[in-house]
Amino acid sequence: MAALRAGLIGLGMMGRHHARVLRAISDVDLVAVADPAGDPHNVAGGLPVHQSVEAMIETGLDYCVVATPTAYHEEIGLTLAAAGIHALIEKPLAKDTLGARKLAEAFDGAGLIGAVGHIERYNPALQNLRSRLAEGELGEIYQIITRRQGPFPARIADVGVVKDLATHDIDLTAWVVGHPYRTVSAHTAYKSGRAHEDLVAVTGKLTNGTVTSHLVNWLSPMKERVTIVTGDRGAFVADTLHADLTFHANGSTPTQWDDLAQFRGVSEGDVIRYAIAKPEPLRVEHEAFRDAILGRSTDIVTMQQGLATVAVAEAVLVSASEGRTVTVTEP
């Protein structure tokens, strides 16, 4: 079987990592790259750097990875769909729900594989967590908390923290428990002098009643990526920076100190840090997309799912702007 002919448009910070992985996985050849801004990280590796997606399409592609700024996703993606080329588009799928819907419909209508690069789904800690939740190890799920904060990424210019970073948390939260958002209530802050928000605090509720809370910013000097799922039997803590998963069990030993016991719903129990395999999430993401094109059983983030995440992100921004709780409309 001939290797799939892959293209890559967007040769910036993310593009260089996509190129590295495309060259590393089996059954794939990176045959074309494009970026009108050039190749600052020497990604091309001897390939000509095309100036447009149209020029890259002419080289003959089976699929293409789109790692451009969000503002260009819709135009590039529609061009690829019209040319009959499968596409993995970096998150968020598009700058708004209208664009995301056009992309999802274009790829579905053409019978093409379209996916969105929500890479956190492929983090080993979250994949292991999802499996354990599906097995009922936590019992009833009460709450999901995420914190995603760190310094400002200079590469981001066209969206704020909600559509850049918070879409990770929106997607992973709905995915890890298998239920979409029902409502969101948010506050934002603008501290860096840019036109877009730098911080968001969101509370919400999923359709199964799970309460959610997300704190996301790029104003912090320390980097934090954590997901905490609390339920009937304790809490899972996923540190996605280090791909670690820890379980804090509810204790079975009663508290002897009466004055303290009356203030505590549960007591501390055993703490287990799981030993899990830690493959690189980006490689797993690419292998899953390759397998989808080849017709193998796999798990990708579909464009319909990417559209749902953009819809929640827009509801978050509406909530922050209008100072009210917003009911999320299913796209």
From TrEMBL:
GO terms for molecular function: nucleotide binding. Residues 131-328 form the Gfo/Idh/MocA-like oxidoreductase C-terminal domain. Residues 5-118 form the Gfo/Idh/MocA-like oxidoreductase N-terminal domain. Belongs to the Gfo/Idh/MocA family. This is Gfo/Idh/MocA family oxidoreductase. It comes from Jiangella rhizosphaerae.
